[in-house]
Amino acid sequence: MSSSTSSSELPPIILYHYPFSPYARRIVWYLHLRGIPYTQCLQPHILPRPDLSSSLGIKYRRIPLLSIGRDVYLDTRLILSKLESLPLPISQPKLSAPAGSDDLALERLLSAYSIDGGLFSRAAQLLFSLDNPLLKDPKFLADRAEFATGGGAAGAKGAAVSREDMAALGPEALADLRDYCQLLETTVLADGRRWILKGNDKPGMADIEAVFVLYWVMGLPGALPKGMFNEEKFPRVWKWVERFRVAVGESKQTPAKKGESKVTTIKGDKASEMILGAEWNEKGESEVDTGEAIVQFHKLEKGTVVEVWPTDSGSGVAHRDVGRLVRLDAKEVVIENDKGLRIHAPRHGFRVKPSAQAVASSL
Ligand SMILES: N[C@@H](CCC(=O)N[C@@H](CS)C(=O)NCC(=O)O)C(=O)O
């Protein structure tokens, strides 16, 4: 497609999420900032999610997921990079820093710091000290215990998540979040710029990467003690977060204009009908790169039945997607599942290996 493709020519884009998910906000903001119309299919915050498991045969248990046509993308890092590569008109410019720039390095490092570097996990530890009804809901705690342990006996007993043990981590988490505010206040934001990247007149990907954890905890009443985190201590950070809130249409003072964010909400059966009836978003030839160490290690080929799951917590043990290998390269692994859709996962943070079921049934 040429760069003059209009958004209406894109395959349908469907976001599966629940609005209070901080990871989902990353995608919602991106779509808003770039003016990409999309459809959302709202999901419960705990399992089961039959819209995904029964209708689409997806085992991945995290939120959000994004489908573009009949391709479904897991993990916000892959989702954002796919959205960046959509062929949109110049009037909807990309949000990432230019290839090869120092700015791109900063953007990537902010992402790694927030997601892999533990800032998000630290922020999550603050939840356990809050007087929040969700954290007293036995169904929610049992669900997240399974998430933390990967299910099975330990998960059923809820061994991994004790509210008291988690609450005890709160003070350390606060110290780390304060360090982060201090870092932003005294480095990138110190010269009074409006956005994370110098000279930018609009928020970009670097802002999304830098803000999403802070934005989340700042919105949770009681999470950040007022004496430790306030506008006097971190004036530049506070103003930048507020500017961002306005830019993404979430400020009460300056709400999004009517018609500005073109979001349609649909039910799961309609969403799966749209996905399964759509064209592939990625139509080109796909290869399994024989130069990849994992391909050599497991002797993978196109069509090998594999399992794919995230490795950053135990949650994958019970939630592995199974399908025939369509593509594997340095960036992603793509499988086609038995419902006939393609599931894309990034290589980073995900594991792929021949399916135990398939190996067993061929013996
Ligand atoms: N690395 C993932 C993390 C996504 C994630 O942890 N999402 C949370 C919600 S904010 C989640 O799915 N929690 C468990 C659940 O909802 O079942 C990404 O970037 O998308």
TrEMBL record:
InterPro entries (UniProt xref): DUF7962 (IPR058268), Glutathione-S-Trfase_C_sf (IPR036282), Glutathione_S-Trfase_N (IPR004045), Thioredoxin-like_sf (IPR036249)
CDD domains: GST_N_family
Annotated Pfam families: DUF7962, GST_N_3
Domain GST N-terminal, first and last residues per copy: 15-86
Residue ranges occupied by any DUF7962 domain in the UniProt entry: 124-252
Name of the featured protein: GST N-terminal domain-containing protein
Source organism of the structure: Sordaria brevicollis
